[in-house]
Amino acid sequence: MRARVIVRLKPGVLDPQGAAVEDALHTLGFTGASNVRVQKLIELDVDAADADACKLLVLEMADQLLRNPVIEDCGVEVLQ
């Protein structure tokens, strides 16, 4: 099964990469851009019996490696 993980900083955590992108957008004339946040998208194939088992396995992977649980949240989507 194919799964997609979106890792994002928790609300209130500073996002220096997002701030740099926002500054660059303003420099390019896109002054309407604000509150830019950068996320990571990870897609992977998982050997699992069904979608529920796949999601649980990917959440475990996220907790152990794919995200820093202190400052990042994540969402998992199983793709059919």
Explain the overall architecture.
The termini are close together. The protein is elongated and about 50 Å long. The chain has a single domain (about 1-80), classed as Mth169, Chain: A (2-Layer Sandwich). The protein has 2 helices and 3 strands; from the N terminus they run βαβαβ. It is α+β, with helices and mostly antiparallel strands. A 3-stranded antiparallel beta sheet has the order 2-1-3, covered by helices on one side.
Taken in chain order, the helices and strands follow as EHEHE
Structural domains: how many: 1
Can you count the helices? 2
Q: Give me the CATH fold name.
A: Mth169, Chain: A
**First-residue to last-residue Cα separation:** 7 Å
Percent helix range: 25-40%
Which assembly state applies to the chains in this document?
single chain
Mean pLDDT: 97
What is the annotated CATH architecture?
2-Layer Sandwich
Gross morphology is elongated
Q: State the low-pLDDT regions, or none.
A: none
Largest sheet: 3 strands, antiparallel
Portion in beta strands? 25-35%
